[in-house]
Each structure stands twice: as structure tokens, then as C-alpha cells.
Amino acid sequence: MYTITFYSFKGGVGRTMALANVAVHLAQSGRRVLLVDFDLEAPGLDTLDLPQPRTPSKGVVDFVQQYLASGESPDVSSYLYETEGAGKQGGKLWIMPAGLSDEDYSVRLGAIDWARLYSERDGYVLLEDLKAQWKELLAPDYVLIDSRTGHTDVAGICTRQLPEAVVVLFIPNEQNRRGLAKAVNDIRAEGKRPGGHSIALHFVMSNVPDLDDEEKILASRLRAFDAALGIGDDLLTVHRYDSLLLLNQAIFVRDRPRSRLAREYRAVANEIISQNPEDREGALRFIRSLDEEREHFSPQDLEARLERMRLLHSRDAEVLLALANARRRERRFHEARALLDDVVALGNKSPGVLLARAESRQLTQDSEGAVQDLSAALANPEADFPTVDRAVRLLRMISPENLAGLTSRPAVANRSASEQLWLATQLRSRRTELEASKQLALGVLSREGLSEHEHSMAVGPAAIALVALREFGAARELLRPLVESVAKPNVQHVFNYAIAEWGETGAPPTEGLRRVVELDVDQKDQAPDANYYQCLALAAVVIGERERALDLIARSRTSIRMRPGPEFSCWRYRLVSPEQFNRDLDAIERLARNGVGEPELLRRGAHTPEPS
Questions:
Q1: Distance separating alpha carbons of residues 261 and 255, to the nearest angstrom
Q2: Tens-place pLDDT, residues 333-359
Q3: Which residues pair with 38 in a beta bridge?
Q4: How far, in Å, are 65, 112, 147, 211, 306 from residue 128 at the CA level?
């Protein structure tokens, strides 16, 4: 149960209309809502355009009078009524009016001495019991209280004792600014006194004319209000709305849901929801916008709020998952893992959740558990490609031996040709990766109905994997039609074919690499990167163009500095770190300067090396 008071220092701001529209919106969105009329001098909730009980209902004044007469807290069920049909999706709406509207109402109200009630008759306990009865009888999600204006005992009860939040409505004039300053300070002080509780504040500038502000009058007034009240960036606005429906106290969120006024009332409701840790939707909104919310809370209060959400929603996998993701962003991986354990225990074993837990497990030194989660994620054919991509990357990092049979994993086998080829290009560091890369690319090539472009795109990754695995003859057979039977072949295919020939014959393929250098001149659509310059440098060395080779090596070094991630090295045919890539460039430079050396791929014998 989350209690919100709607308060204004002066009347005429549309407070009761705002409260009623927010209440109906909450009820129509499936929430259980109780409206309480504590504007005892000018009650009005029972005049709203909402279903009324067959017989007039007693209310707050009668409840207190009965207590004063008997000394016992009355049964609240006799002092409220349900507005039939106001809610949807299981939502309900109850009203506790100010009191029985008869000729004796003002007499009964005048007989209540609120100060004496608190000082001599345990008024504080009475109101706490009233809240407890609301909760036990109705189990409402929200209690919305319409408070009296000004500085009064009743206003203090409504703004400090009863609520978790207060919606402060105002017209931005000087009278409201002065009056609200004390009320807002008192509300904020409630959280600092012994035994007090923090109360959220929502500021709503209401009944505002929608006019040009050429003289910046409104902007000036708002600066004054911000200085006095500390509104900050969270101001909501309800504009003046000229409609005769207001005379009927129509519920705009119900009767005119597409009107601007209805949208503004819904914005107030949504702001309340977002600050209510008990509300599932509000908890999710708060957690997902945590970076923006941090500035409004001290670290201690924020942690307490998040922990409360965790406890309140301990059986809600979606809320716990949102919390886990927040903890992962904060790099608090032990907490994230514990939350993800709870999510999985609640039955959410989706690939995304398993991947998130695998990442957290890996970062908390549980590699075995991480591999189990990754294997389970890749066994799900419903996994989306970003999840598959991240899972494969993590698996290759912590357990490359588990990449064996990757193409048979349902999440991988289910992918499109372009997605499988993307995975193939990422698996080039170790032998187990290269085997998986080969199987992925060859699998794509075996598909029926490939276009000429798709076939050419698949040949590249397949050929690279075959060369890297020293299957030189197979690589040449695969590349030969695209190299020997095409007038203007792809320069990458020609280079890979030449290296495969070098590996198979043991002799540098001078003519093949000369063709690589010649084709480079015509490759207008080629976007050079560090690997491209490196390949050209090696080709230039072999055909004796030493100066050109040194220039290309320098370009390759510049490129790797600008993009300092793993890069594919043609010197050893695998992805390497920037540091190793530069060492490979050193080796090509030595070959250019003094003719010493040969590609690491060809010098290491029949086994593809593992990373150093």
C-alpha cells in the first residue's frame, strides 16, 4: 500500500480533479485504489462523475466522531464504498468521503478538536490504525488523499503522518510560493526527525495558461519557486483546459483519453508510479532509469530503496533481472550473479538470462558454471543473434575446447548465412576456433540457392580457415575458380590462393603475389586496414619491391594504432593482439631489409600454433 497526498496551499489549482483522474487511471490500469477525502471543510470527492452508492456513506468525520464517543477505533468498512465499474483489468476504486452529507455535517466537523485528539486521545495511533484497516480490508495498491489547503492540523496529518509521497500543486504566483515554502520544508524535515520517514515530493504546476511568454514571466516565477522549494528538473505541468466538461467534473482519462489534459494527468500518475517501490511497473521504471535517478538520492537511500525493491519483488523474475543488469553495469558481479540465480530458479532460463549469468560467473571465477550456462544458451534455437554472438565470444575466451561441434548447436545451426559467416570471421585465434570457423563457412557453401555474391562471401572465411589449418590443397581447390577464371578477381582471394600455393609447394609464389600488388591499384572499393596493408607489404617483399613494402608496413602500424583491437595477421593466419601484430610487422620488415625469415604459418610445421 502506497499512500499519496494531493496538497495545495491555495484552492483553484484543480487539485481534486487531478487526484480523481490519477486515481481512475490507476484503477483502469489494473490497480486497487482508495480515495480519501480529507478536505473536510470543502469536501468534494463524492461529487465527482463516478458511480455513487445507493445510500449516502459515512466518512472520515463520522469515523473520528465514533472513536471519540466509544474510545475504540471503528470498523472502517462502514465508512467507505466501492465505485462499481471504475476499474479495468482487475482494478478497483473505493472512496472514503469526508463524511455523511447531511445538515449536521458541519456540526460534527466543528466538534472535532484535532489538537486535543492528538494530545489527549491518541490521535496518532487512531490514524495509524485507520491505515492498517485500509490495508487489511482492501489491500489497496494506492491510497490517494485529498488534503485541506493551507497550514492546518489536518493538512499536517495528510502531508506528514499518512503519506509516502505528496503531490504539491500550485499556480506559480507569490502567494503560493510563500505558503508552500513552509509546507515543503516541514515535509522534508519529517524524514530527518527521530522516528520520521522520508516523503517523496512531486511538484505539479497546475491551471497554467497556454500563452506566449514573451516577457519571460513564467520562467522568472519558476526560478523563484525552484529557489524556494528545490523543485529541480522534475516539474510536471497541467495546463488550463477550457471545456464545459469541467463543470460536470468529468473524468478526462476515462471520457476524453486522447485530450491533452488526460495526457498530463497520466504523466502525473506515471511519475507517482515510478517512485513507488511497491509497484512492479514503478520498480522496473526506476531500476531501468537508475543512472538518471542517482542524482535524487544519497548513496545510502538509493541502496536501501533497491534492497526494498528486491525484497518486495523477490518472486518477480523481471524485476530481479532488471536489478541484476543494474548490478552488472556497476560491476558488482557477485550481487548480479546471486540475483540471476534467483531469476533462473523462478523459471526464466532464456538464452539472454543464461548468457548474463555466464558473464557474471566468469567474472567471479566460476568458469565451469559459465560454460554450463553458455552451453545451455547455445542449445536453445530461440536465441537471438546478439546473444549467440556474445555467447560464442565468451566461450572461445574461457573454454575454446567447447567450440567443437559448434555448428550443431541449435542456436548456431538456426542462423542465417550472413550470421554464420560473421561467427566464422571471429573464430581465428586457436586451432579449435579455426576448426569451428571452417565448419561454419563450409556449411554455408553447402547451402542450396546461394547467390554468386553469397558464395563469394563464404569462400573467403572458408579459405582462410583452410590455410590457417595448413589444408593448403583444399584451400587452392576452393579458390581456384574465383582466381583463375575471373578477369578481375577479389584481391583477398588471390592473396589467400598465393599463400596456399606457397604452403603446398614450399616456394614463394612470386607471380601470384605480383598479381596481388597489381590488383591493389584497381581495388577502389577496398577500405584498407592494418591487415590489408600487412598483406600487401608481404607481397611487395616477395616480388622485391622493398621500399614499397617498408611504406606499407608503416601504414599498417599507423592503422593498428588507430584501431587497437585484435587483428588478423597474415604472417601466422590467426587473430592476434596489437602487440603480436606489431611483432609480426617487425618480422616482415626484417625480411624486407635483409631477406631473413618466412611466414610463421609456413615455418611451424604441420601444427597450427596456439596463442602465446
A1: 11
A2: 999 999 999 999 999 999 999 999 999
A3: 147
A4: 16, 18, 17, 45, 26
- pLDDT at residue 522 greater than cutoff 70: no
| pLDDT, tens only, 363-417 | 999 999 999 999 999 999 999 999 999 999 999 999 999 998 899 999 999 899 9
Report whether 446 contacts 423 (CB < 8 A).
no
Instruction: Phi first, then psi: give them for residue 232, nearest 5 degrees.
Output: 70, -145
Q: Which CATH superfamily is domain 2-56+81-102+138-276 in?
A: P-loop containing nucleotide triphosphate hydrolases (3.40.50.300)
Kind plus residue range of the DSSP H or E element containing 337: helix 333-345
Yes or no: say if 167 and 235 are a contact pair by the CB < 8 Å rule. Answer: no
203, β-bridge pairs: 168
Q: Could you tell me if 80 and 96 are in contact, meaning their C-beta atoms sit under 8 angstroms apart? A: yes
- Measured from the Cβ of residue 387, the count of other Cβ atoms closer than 10 Å reads 21
Cα Rg for the chain, rounded, in angstroms? 36
Distance of CA 477 to the CA centre of its chain: 50
Please tell me the least confidently modeled range out of 215-229, 401-415, 426-440.
215-229
**Helix then strand then coil, % of the chain, to nearest 5:** 60, 10, 30
Which residues, other chains included, contact 418 with Cβ-Cβ below 8 Å and sequence gap of 6+? Answer: 457
- Using alpha carbons only, what angle is made at residue 356 by residues 397 and 402, rounded to the nearest 5 degrees? 35
Does 465 have pLDDT greater than 70?
A: yes
Residue for grid cell 617498408 = 550
Distance (Å, rounded) from C-alpha 146 to C-alpha 36? 6
Between CA 192 and CA 205 the distance in angstroms is 27
Q: Where are the domains of the chain?
A: 2-56+81-102+138-276
Would you state the pLDDT for residue 612? Answer: 42
The secondary structure element, H or E, covering residue 108 is helix 105-110
Going by C-alpha positions, the residue among 114, 125, 185 that lies closest to residue 161 is: 125
Contact 74, 63 (CB under 8 A): yes
Q: What is the mean pLDDT of the chain?
A: 89
Residue 594 neighbours by CB under 8 Å, 6+ apart: none
Q: For the chain, what is the total number of helices (H) and then of strands (E)? A: 29, 10
CB 575 within 8 A of CB 425: no
pLDDT of residue 560: 93
Q: For residues 248 and 103, give the distance between their C-alpha atoms in angstroms, rounded to a whole number.
A: 24
Query: Which are the contacts of 559, defined by CB distance < 8 A and separation ≥ 6?
Result: 528, 529, 530, 533
Q: Phi first, then psi: what are they for 414, rounded to 5°?
A: -85, 0
Q: CA 246 to CA 14: how far, in whole Å?
A: 10
Query: Cell numbers at residue 601, please?
Result: 604459418
Q: Are 483 and 497 in contact (CB under 8 A)?
A: yes
pLDDT tens digits for 77-97? 999 999 988 889 999 999 999
Q: For residue range 24-48, what is the model confidence (pLDDT) as tens digits?
A: 999 999 999 999 999 888 888 877 8
CB 497, CB 475: distance < 8 Å: yes
Burial (CB count within 10 angstroms: exposed 0-12, middle 13-18, buried 19+), residue 452: exposed
What's the gap between Cα 230 and its chain centre? Answer: 28
Task: Collect all residues with Cβ–Cβ distance below 8 Å to 372 and sequence separation of at least 6.
Answer: none
Amino acid at 143: V
Written in H, E and C, the secondary structure of 423-445 is HHHHCCCCHHHHHHHHHHHHHHH
